[in-house]
Amino acid sequence: DFEKLPKIEFGHEQKDECKLKPQTKVQKDIAKVWSEVLNVKSIGLKDDFFNLGGHSLKVMPALVKLKPLYPNLK
């Protein structure tokens, strides 16, 4: 039962005041998608998808959300 497993704390998320915030539309779109897929409150420019808890199975939902915004994304 997954409910009984202890929650994993990755500890790689920077404090909000230390983060470089996304500036461009592309950066903001990617940060929003990562935040939704990884359940992370805020994403900084220097954050790493995998250090924030991302893995190969989380890449696909991120791509599915980004594809309508960027149809040429491969």
TrEMBL record:
SUPFAM superfamilies: ACP-like (SSF47336)
One of the Pfam families matching this protein, by short name: PP-binding
GO molecular function: phosphopantetheine binding
GO biological process, one term: secondary metabolite biosynthetic process
Chain ranges of the Carrier domain: 21-74
GO cellular component: cytoplasm
Name of the protein described by the UniProt record: Carrier domain-containing protein
Organism: Bacillus cereus
